[in-house]
Amino acid sequence: MKSTNPFTSLFGRSPFKPMQQHMRLVADCAAEVPPLFEALIEGNAAKIEAQKNKIFELEHAADGLKNDLRDHLPRSLLMPVDRRDLLEVLGMQDSIADTAQDIAGLLVERKMEVPPGMAEPLMKLVNRCVDTCEQAHKVIEELDELVEMGFRGREAAQVEEMVTALSKIEDETDVMGMELSRRLFAQEDTMKPVSVMFWYQLIQWIGDLADYAEKVGDRLRLLIAR
User: Fold this and answer.
1) Exposed, middle or buried, 140 (CB in 10 Å: 0-12/13-18/19+)?
2) Which of 41, 118, 132, 174 could serve as 213's disulfide partner, Cβ 3.0–4.6 Å?
3) Domains recognised in the chain with CATH numbers
């Protein structure tokens, strides 16, 4: 559909499509995290390494697109949104991919064994956190339509609902993360202290996937509010 927003004809290159492309790469990166943990539970070192490589490749591609977008983001005063606001959204998107990379790196660099009774709740947490990333992806896919409609009207209301749903999913991951941490600490006397420390860090990073996804939605909600 041809743009109805007069602002979009005033710049040569719109930043909104690349923002969406970046988020697609980020979502793809996050989607590789559950198979990574499935491989960990199976004790399949080769599969862990293969998943790590996929995540690193996607994160690298996302980084390249992020840097290109930052270098070419218009500085015009006639942009429909503030440049700093877009950079904040981009930064939150990028943090999702960075976190996935951190998780993958740790699972390859250090031999991790899933503590007894934690495999099932661990996978539930991982999958639900990835759900938040996918929901954030869906929200960002509406960005160009939001711009077309001037961040108003039915499109804005729909995005508000999507962001609210995103926040609810993230709340679920908080509860799941706390429960998984309690399970970890309940058996810390039978584990090496350093293993407890690394597992606690890993649980925090898994939760960070959801936290950053929620922040993507929150930043977009602020754009609507302005």
Assistant:
1) buried
2) 132
3) 13-225 (1.20.58.220)
